[in-house]
């Protein structure tokens, strides 16, 4: 079949809207009509050539929602007509990682996914006879995409696509980092670095679990109003702090934070986030994705004295199990999504979404097909 898609032909070049050829689902795969997709900073990072796994040409996009249109042989968990969210972190429930109960990082198809291929080592997308890579196992910047069965979460049919697509990455990543990775307790003092599409979801997660102090840190002063809207109690613009930022944050939180979250991808910020933790027990969660080649550093003494450095992918959420529950949290009003969707675009306007993100003018842009 044919599908309209925004294709990344080369790094640092705007996406091109073209018609691709798409092969149907093979055994264990499903064809999904994507109804809406968010644009996450990770898509921009890959398009900008900063991802060590970045491949071109490819169909980017990993934050979608849609409808199953066809299933391949042996598929049992979904049928045509089901509403689903594609999962860049699948959940096979059979691999060592899934069975460990210790991680959401299913390893069943990670090797081929990182090479832009389906689990059988081939692509379903092609353009003028040449293969086009998949991206993060999702490729939601295409109106139709093929996904492994283990990489779709079936969701309720009354959830609007336009907002629930954001649960495919940003919402789950931010809220999950609080409730699943850090397991923040009521009354905790927390600091969130970077108040974008992820950081604001960390903030609303902290509000949901009853954190006391929710400090937001961002170099864009316009983010103060956004943070307060979702529960932030204090705002710090590092550019207006005289003296050492860590010392300022430690004083503000009465000795250091119980939990800090990096939602910037900047390795210097990651260090600040670790060092702003309370001696003896503070935990810093790295969510931001750093450019290829970057490394983190701190004095080992920071860890010797009890601070903990952790990372979180997809908020520690197991996609097929947890995503439908997060959709319920949204539908019952426990968490908000709609106010964070600042721009709704057509596929033809998708490059504008990247421009708005780089200019700091959007929280989430969503493309509706
Ligand atoms: P975004 O562009 O919407 O937000 C980034 C925010 O960080 C902006 O408000 C920006 O002003 C702020 N910022 C930049 N430099 C800063 C600095 N030095 N100090 C303080 N604030 C600073 O991006 P997003 O979509 O929210 O994504 C944030 C990060 O999370 C990205 O690195 C993205 O790749 C990553 N991410 C990781 C996961 C995961 O599973 N681990 C999932 C989604 C996104
Ligand atoms: N490909 C990069 C790493 C990118 C990365 O860390 N991705 C996150 C999700 S970001 C979503 O917006 C993730 O889930 N990582 C776990 C995984 O298995 O990819 C690199 O550095 O090579
Ligand atoms: Zn993302």
TrEMBL record:
Q: Which SUPFAM superfamilies match?
A: GroES-like, NAD(P)-binding Rossmann-fold domains
**According to the UniProt entry, what is the EC number of this protein?**
1.1.1.284
Q: What InterPro entries does this protein's entry cite?
A: ADH-like_C, ADH-like_N, ADH_3, ADH_Zn_CS, ER, GroES-like_sf, NAD(P)-bd_dom_sf
Q: Which GO terms describe its cellular component?
A: cytosol
Keyword hit for Cell division: no
Q: Which cofactor does it need?
A: Zn(2+)
Sum up the protein's function in the record's words: Has high formaldehyde dehydrogenase activity in the presence of glutathione and catalyzes the oxidation of normal alcohols in a reaction that is not GSH-dependent. In addition, hemithiolacetals other than those formed from GSH, including omega-thiol fatty acids, also are substrates. Also acts as a S-nitroso-glutathione reductase by catalyzing the NADH-dependent reduction of S-nitrosoglutathione.
**Name listed for the protein in its UniProt record:** S-(hydroxymethyl)glutathione dehydrogenase
């Amino acid at each position: 079949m044919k599908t309209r898609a925004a294709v990344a032909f080369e790094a640092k070049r705007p996406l091109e809207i073209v018609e691709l050829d798409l092969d149907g689902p093979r055994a264990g795969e499903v064809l999904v009509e994507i109804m809406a997709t968010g644009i996450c900073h990770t898509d921009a990072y890959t398009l900008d050539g900063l991802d060590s796994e970045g491949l071109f040409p490819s169909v980017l996009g990993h934050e979608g929602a849609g409808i199953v249109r066809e299933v391949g042989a042996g598929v049992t968990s979904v049928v045509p007509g089901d509403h689903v969210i594609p999962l860049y972190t699948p959940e096979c429930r059979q691999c060592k990682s899934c069975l460990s109960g210790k991680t959401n990082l299913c390893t069943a198809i990670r090797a081929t996914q990182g090479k832009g291929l389906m689990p059988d080592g081939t692509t379903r997308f092609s353009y003028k006879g040449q293969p086009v890579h998949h991206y993060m196992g999702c490729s939601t910047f295409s109106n139709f995409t093929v996904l492994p069965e283990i990489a779709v979460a079936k969701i309720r049919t009354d959830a609007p696509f336009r907002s629930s697509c954001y649960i495919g990455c940003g919402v789950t990543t931010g809220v999950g980092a609080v409730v699943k990775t850090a397991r923040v307790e009521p009354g905790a003092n927390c600091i969130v670095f970077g108040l974008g599409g992820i950081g604001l979801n960390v903030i609303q997660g902290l509000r949901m679990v009853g954190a006391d102090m929710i400090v937001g840190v961002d170099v864009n002063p316009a983010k103060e109003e956004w943070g307060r809207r979702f529960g932030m109690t204090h705002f710090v613009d590092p550019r207006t702090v005289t003296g050492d930022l860590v010392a300022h944050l430690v004083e503000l939180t009465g000795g250091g934070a119980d939990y800090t979250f990096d939602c910037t991808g900047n390795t210097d910020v990651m260090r600040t986030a670790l060092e702003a933790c309370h001696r003896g027990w503070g935990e810093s969660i790295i969510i931001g994705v750093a450019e290829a080649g970057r490394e983190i550093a701190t004095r080992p003494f920071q860890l010797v004295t009890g601070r903990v450095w952790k990372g979180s992918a997809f908020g520690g959420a197991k996609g097929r199990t947890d995503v439908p529950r997060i959709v319920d949290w949204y539908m019952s009003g426990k968490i908000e999504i709609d106010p964070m969707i600042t721009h709704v675009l057509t596929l033809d306007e998708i490059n504008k979404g990247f421009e708005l993100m780089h200019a700091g003018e959007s929280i989430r842009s969503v493309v509706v097909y």
